[in-house]
Structure formats: C-alpha cells, structure tokens
Design brief:
- The complex is a heterodimer of chains A (91) and B (296).
- Chain A has two helices and three strands.
- Chain A is α+β, with helices and mostly antiparallel strands and 91 residues long.
- A three-stranded mixed β-sheet of chain A has the order 2-1-3.
- In chain A, a hairpin with a 4-residue loop joins β1 and β2.
- The radius of gyration of chain A is 13 Å and the shape is globular.
- In chain B, β15 and β16 form a beta hairpin.
- Chain B is elongated.
- In chain B, the strands form six sheets. Chain B has a five-stranded antiparallel β-sheet with strand order 14-11-17-18-19, with no helix packed on it. In chain B, strands 1, 2, 4 and 5 form a four-stranded antiparallel β-sheet that branches. Chain B has a four-stranded antiparallel β-sheet with strand order 7-10-16-15, with no helix packed on it.
- The two termini of chain B are 48 Å apart.
- Chain B is mainly beta and 296 residues long.
- The longest helix of chain B has 12 residues.
- Classes of the chains: A alpha+beta (91), B mainly beta (296).
- At the A-B interface, α1 and α2 of A face β11, β12 and β16 of B.
Chain lengths: 91, 296
Amino acid sequence: MARGDSVGSREPGRLREIQTILAQLNDWEQNYGTTYGDAKGLGSTGEANARIADLKDKLCGLGAVFRWNGERYVLVATAAPGQGRQLADLG
Amino acid sequence: MRQFARKPVSNRGSGPASLPRRDEAAGRAAGMSGRQVAPVEHDFGRMSVFAGPPVTVETTLKRGNSGGSSEVRGDETGDETVGHSEPRTRGSSQRPAWGERPSLGTGQSLPPAVAPPAAPAAPTSTEVVPSLSFSNDSYVDSGKTSHKVIHFDVTVPIPLDDHKIALVNNIQGHGKFAGGSFWKVKMYGSLVDANFPSMQVDSVDADPVYWSDATSRWNYNLTDTGFFATDDPGPPAYNFDPGDETKFKFKTGLYWLADLPLTTSGSISATPIEEKTWEYSVVADPTTGALTHPAI
C-alpha cells in the first residue's frame, strides 16, 4: 500500500460508489469473465471483457486500489480520485 | 430535477428550442420566477420537431446521470414562438395586397402588374434522432495477441433522453484453433462454440441490450454529447498460435430501449434507428505465426 492510501475514506459517497462498482465488477467477472478459474480457456465476443475493463477504469477514476484475491476483487485502499490502480493478483 | 451536463449548443433555428419556452411558460403559470422551470414530464424518447424559419436561440442545457425530468434554459427575451409562423394577414395600409391591382383615378394608366412571389415552401417535419459512430476501430497487435477495443459513440440530440436509447450487437463468423476446433464463449448465459454461421444477437445474457446486467439494462458512459460503450473481442487470452484464426463480423445497432425485448434467443424484431458494421479478423500464419487482418 502506498503512503497516503487509506481505507475508510472520509468521503462516504465516493466509498459507497466504489463498493457498488466493485460489486458490479465481481458479478461480471464471476458470470462472464474469461480471466480466472475455469473461464481461463474461454474466448470472448467482447462484451464482457470490455465491460469488465470499463468497470476497472471507473474504479481507478474513483481512486480505488483493488486486487484479485483469488476469488474476487477486493478493495485494498483508496487513493485520490484518478490515482486508483489494480494491484497484482493473489492466488 | 434532472440536470443535463452538456455543453451549450445552438439549436440552429430548429424546433427543439420551442420546448424550453413551453417549460418556462408553464413555470410562469405556476408562479415560478426567473429561470425556474416547471417540472413538466416529457417523453423525449422520440419526437418530431417543426422545421420552421430560422430563429437563433441561445440555449444552455446541463446533463446529469439520471433520467427523468429535464431542465432546459433558453433566452427569455421576446415572445416570439420558435418554429411557428404567424399567418400573414393583409393590413390596412395603402399598399395593395400582392396580386391585386391598385385602384386608379380617371386618366391614369395602369403600371405593369407585379407577379406575387412564389408561396413559401410548406414547412417540413424533421425527426430528432440519435446517431451512432465508431472510434478506435483499429487493431493493436503485440507478439501473439491482437486487440481491437472499438468505441461505440452515440450522439443524442437534446432533448432526447440517453437512457431511452440502447445498443444491440450482432455477430457472425467463427473463432477456431489451428486444429479446427472452435473456442468457447458465453452466449445468452450458456457456453457455446464460437461459431455463428449467420448473423445473430451477441449477448452474454438473455437480454439483448449491450452491457445490460441483472441490476440495470442501461450501463453506458455518459459524455457531453451522448454516451459510449466499448467492445473487445478475441480468443482465450487474446492469444493466436500459428494457424489460429478468428473472423467475426459485427453489426451494431442503435435502438429505442422500449422497443427491445427483455430476452432473446438470437434475434429481435425491433427496427434499429441506425446500424453499422465492423470486423474483428485475425489470422495467424500457420508457419510464421505472423498476424494479419484479412477483410471478411
């Protein structure tokens, strides 16, 4: 975690939005994603992969620092808006 | 009340400018002052506007993230009715009306008759509709991978509601490995071969609306001029080994959301507002593995 990152933002609105998008991201990944688990061998006509990338972009825009923990995406920290990023996968 | 977040636009003298005036008139009738606007419910899904004589109206609109009511501001000077012409009436002036001859005194000669000008063309009706365009329709190849992250850019003229317009993608073609087997994709919630001999709806779930999910049918990104979504097709891990090939032809359509069924098994009967085609075609040379993009 980088210095200055924190979980439990003083901006509950932004944190709530991050959690909502994170839930959407996990739904898309678990239902239609092609990156993890049994879905690794799947191709994509593009819809799901593009949507997942779009949701990750939104999270980064909101300052979310998140990662794949082996089962799902989890919020690790919050940074300034626009400074979010996906950390290396676990598991 | 909904706030449109859109850059100021000029209505170029066409009909939509009449709507803010209607709102303001309603506001005044309701005792509202200044730039307050009455909460009038509009169905901006479709509308035709009157293409009357050009009138310049400076209009500022703001667009927000939610659907519903709208606030539209127009200039508040004058009381002219935009998009409407008063019928011409003959005045009581001394001039004769067109086509009439003036009365003459004795001994006066008649001037040559002046032909009346051609009658103005009948006003026409112009339908305000959204439009679709593509951007980033290009391949990015790196080693054995090939991406095309195409953008579907939808322009939504004010005062249409973005949330009443949706994209539907259709697909035809195949994606297969060098050995001849097709790789798998999710289609309408099931795993199927990436082999679509004829054009069919392309959707990971049963809802034909592009990017729809269990929580919402409409999940696009708003812009100053409308909204956009992206696509990014490809084989597993976007990897092409020698001999692999994917040849997909896509037809992306713009629809009124209300026209689209909640589920599909491959086709829909709704008529698109507009459709455009594009391709994702990648072939890895069987020997060298070099990637090419032959037209389909």
